[in-house]
């Protein structure tokens, strides 16, 4: 699935250079479930952005199924992203004026899916995360946990190969946190996704089978950490 070689990301501001990622090597297999943790500013979100083709490395290769994302044109990269990669963020990033169903449908627009099929697939995805009764609700009419489930449905409706989650439970209270983790866990198993998640939650990190830690842009991976 993913092969990262010497991935480096430098941000330069005036005379200051930040090494957000500093020579990261990482292999991620199909169907893997990788948890990423580390101190704030360590480079976790930057790594996720590289994996998701949201940004390009300063140096190195980010290969997804044989294609180096760093070398793709913007148009090709957008295509790879919209077909293969689902994102879930800490702030749910829903469009406030669209219903749950319409928010989920937005993921299918760039894929050229027709209106009727879009509607059906969005309803199906929302049902699979337990929101079949909330299709017509606006984000403001839902709890945080429900909004995050809409975001998960939006990430998964296109049937991506990869799900990237950046602190998906960061804005939620404890009970909702467990609920969202259960949904993500179930989706990973049911859909055969490759699931990569950044979390500050040490309970989740402890249970991870593969745990990556990033400090000052340097990555270490512990296998079978939770076994
Ligand atoms: N667009 C940017 N411009 C300049 N510096 C940046 C930019 N994005 C990130 N950085 C810097 O890169 C480093 C890594 O940032 P990153 O967001 O990846 O950390 P993080 O591990 O996700 O932290 P957090 O846990 O707080 O989310 C930080 O020092 C940050 O200030
Ligand atoms: Mg971050």
Label this structure with key terms.
alpha/beta; ABC_transporter-like_ATP-bd; binds adenosine-5'-triphosphate; 7 helices; globular; 227 residues; AAA+_ATPase; ATP binding; 33% helix; binds magnesium ion; ATP-binding; Rossmann fold; ABC_transporter-like_CS
Quantity of strands, as a count: 10
CATH class: Alpha Beta
Helix/strand/pairing class, anyone?
Answer: alpha/beta
Spell out which ligands are present: adenosine-5'-triphosphate, magnesium ion
Distance between the termini: 23 Å
Query: Do you know the CATH topology?
Result: Rossmann fold
Biggest β-sheet: strands ordered side by side in the sheet: 6-7-8-3-9-10
Helix-strand pattern, N to C? EEEHEEHEHHHEHEHEE
Number of domains: 1
User: Helix fraction?
Assistant: 25-40%
> Can you count the helices?
7
Percent of residues in beta strands: 25-35%
Largest sheet: 6 strands, mixed
CATH architecture: 3-Layer(aba) Sandwich
Low-confidence stretches: none
Provide a concise account of the structure shown:
This is ABC transporter ATP-binding protein. One of its GO terms (molecular function) is ATP binding. By secondary structure, the protein is an alpha/beta fold.
Structural features, described:
- This protein has 227 residues and is α/β, with parallel strands linked by helices.
- It has one domain: Rossmann fold (3-Layer(aba) Sandwich), CATH 3.40.50.300.
- The chain has helices spanning 44-51, 74-84, 100-105, 115-128, 144-156, 174-191, 202-207, and strands spanning 2-13, 16-28, 33-37, 59-64, 67-68, 85-89, 162-166, 194-198, 210-215, 218-223.
- Strands 6-7-8-3-9-10 form a 6-stranded mixed β-sheet, with helices on both faces. The protein has a 4-stranded antiparallel β-sheet with strand order 2-1-4-5, covered by helices on one side.
- A hairpin with a 2-residue loop joins β9 and β10.
- α4 (115-128) packs across α5 and α5 packs parallel to α6.
- 41% of the residues are buried.
- The mean pLDDT is 93.
- Adenosine-5'-triphosphate is lined by residues 11, 18, 20, 38, 40-46.
- Pfam families: ABC_tran.
């Amino acid at each position: 699935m993913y092969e990262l070689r010497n991935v480096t990301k430098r941000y330069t501001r005036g005379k200051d250079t930040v090494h957000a990622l500093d020579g990261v090597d990482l292999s991620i297999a199909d169907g893997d479930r990788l948890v990423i943790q580390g101190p704030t500013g360590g480079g976790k979100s930057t790594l996720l952005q590289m994996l998701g083709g949201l940004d390009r490395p300063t140096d190195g290769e980010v290969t997804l199924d044989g294609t180096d994302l760093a070398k793709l044109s913007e148009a090709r990269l957008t295509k790879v992203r919209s077909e293969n990669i689902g994102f879930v963020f800490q702030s749910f990033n829903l469009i406030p004026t669209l219903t749950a169903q319409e928010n989920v449908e937005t993921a299918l627009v760039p894929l050229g899916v027709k209106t009727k099929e879009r509607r059906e697939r969005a309803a199906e995805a929302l049902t699979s995360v337990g929101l079949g009764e909330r299709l017509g609700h606006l984000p403001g009419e839902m709890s945080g946990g429900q909004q995050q489930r809409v975001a998960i449905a939006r990430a998964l409706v296109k049937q991506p190969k990869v799900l990237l989650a950046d602190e998906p439970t960061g804005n939620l209270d404890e009970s909702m946190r467990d609920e969202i983790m259960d949904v993500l866990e179930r989706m990973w198993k049911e859909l055969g996704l490759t699931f990569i998640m950044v979390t500050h939650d040490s309970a989740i990190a402890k249970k991870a089978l593969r745990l990556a830690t990033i400090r000052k842009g340097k990555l270490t991976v512990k296998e079978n950490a939770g076994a």
